[in-house]
Amino acid sequence: MKDLMLSEAGFLALNAGSSSLKVALFPAGGDEPLMTGQADRIGPEGALKLKDQDGEVLENAPGLIDSHTNALAVVIATIKRVFPELRMAAVGHRVVHGGLDYAEPVLVTEEVLAKLADLEPFAPLHQPHNIAGIRAAEEAFPGVPQVACFDTAFHRGQPFVNDTFAIPHRYYEKGVRRYGFHGLSYDYVTSELARIAPHLMQGRVVVAHLGNGASMCAIYRGKSVASSMGFSALDGLPMGTRCGQIDPGVMLYMLDRENLDTAQIRQILYNESGLLGLSGGLSNDMRTLEQADNAQSHRAIDYFVFRVQRELGAMAAVMGGIDALVFCGGIGENSRVVRRRVCERLGWMGIEIDHGKNAENATILSSEFSRTTVMIVNTREDLVIARAARSAAGITEGTDA
Ligand code: AMP
Q1: 240 CA → ligand 1 middle, Å
Q2: Residues with CB under 6 A from ligand 1
Q3: Alpha-carbon span 387 to 394, nearest angstrom
Q4: Which structural domains are found in the chain, ordered by start?
Q5: In angstroms, what is the span from residue 286 Cα to ligand 1's centroid?
Q6: What is the pLDDT of residues 177-230, one digit of tens each?
Q7: What pTM value is reported for the model?
Q8: pLDDT tens-place string over residues 3-46
Q9: Torsion of CA 156, 162, 166, 171, to 10 degrees
Q10: CA–CA distance from 239 to each of 17, 212, 271 (Å)?
Q11: Which residues lie below 8 Å from residue 177, measured CB to CB, with a gap of 6+?
Q12: Distance separating alpha carbons of residues 390 and 393, to the nearest angstrom
């Protein structure tokens, strides 16, 4: 385990979900966390596990974590026990919605929290938990700067045509817009491309963040110009349990003909659709579906691949071509099958992957004949949050990137 200097500064990156809390503790210099972990199923059966950088378990609290505050208390007790000299310098938080105001991370004040609370109707399943995470951290670390990092921020400069829906313009004025999400991941991928392939950042890149949540982003000269997610985290690609793009007429059918109420429809669209719904309830998990290799799993994977290809074609079209396709997220980084199938028949787009490199999960997947670069970037949302926290505390960069 890394020795810490006396009173070395630490930075905590927190990602609070509805029933989970992901944590990563970073040193002042360096991009590798000293400690990572996660609380899951927060409630009567909530459990939490924390590990050090060698994978050694520092804390294992099965069945004891009934609130985010409680989870954070265990995290803090562990930090104090394992890193007694560490001084918490700033805490960074993933916040799903920054609305129209925030195109950058922001230092949290009461005024900022009030604005974030106003955005709860736009992200009812995420925003309240993000705010609860900030409140819990404020309580745990009094006086320590708290920094909110927004999933919407990366997309804020998008052109009007990708920002709007074709409904009466008054809704646009009210903030009913296509915000796009997964911005922390796109931010990280962009910063990695600028480091390892700077020429691509002058061009046209499509990033496919394919995980349990999935979206794609068209990035022209480093800026988001189109994203598949829209007003909520439901739009675009099918996800583990979320539907992705849907004709709004289907919801009217559910309301009018099936007499479902909004809570029932929300449950279907957020929790029973996507890969889980397509596979007839078999699984929301791509790895499980690949292993199942039956008619149900084929249905789900076929649709997923079809939608990624379709979105890719649309994004290449609006940018006037494509110079690079980047895969990230649990599926993008690990599923050889999905990557191979997405890239099939894309020769017209200049895409040709090397199957050997694809099998190895190599960083560059494109063959020597490919006009378009195809890559994997292992995305690090935790690091984007930690960097924002460091910068709020006046430290600009890690040292071992
Ligand atoms: P994430 O939400 O980014 O953690 O991604 C989770 C998704 O990645 C799940 O659907 C997993 O099944 C999928 N995944 C992770 N590892 C693999 C793998 N080796 N092969 C296929 N899918 C994977």
Answers
A1: 10
A2: 211-212, 240, 285-287, 290, 329-331, 334-335
A3: 10
A4: 9-150 (3.30.420.40), 198-376 (3.30.420.40)
A5: 6
A6: 999 999 999 999 999 999 999 999 999 999 999 999 999 999 999 999 999 999
A7: 0.93
A8: 444 358 999 999 988 788 999 999 988 899 999 999 998 888 89
A9: 0
A10: 16, 6, 10
A11: 100, 163, 164, 165, 231
A12: 5
Q: How far apart are CA 360 and CA 136, in angstroms?
A: 42
User: What is the 211 CA–ligand 1 centroid distance (Å)?
Assistant: 6
pLDDT average, residue stretch 142-167? 96
Which pLDDT band, with edges at 50, 70 and 90, does 400 fall under? Answer: very low
Torsional sign, CA 192, 195, 199, 203: positive
In the set 151, 163, 235, 323, the catalytic residue is 151
As a whole number of angstroms, the distance between CA 226 and CA 69 comes to 37
Rg from Cα positions in the chain:
21
How far apart are alpha carbons 65 and 88 in whole angstroms? 23
Whether the CB-CB separation of 182 and 207 falls below 8 Å is answered with: no
Mean pLDDT calculated for residue range 289-317: 98
Q: What distance, in Å, lies between the first and last C-alpha atoms of the chain?
A: 18
Q: Has 54 been annotated as catalytic?
A: no
In this structure, what token pair is assigned to residue 304? 């997923």
pLDDT in tens, 343-353: 998 999 999 99
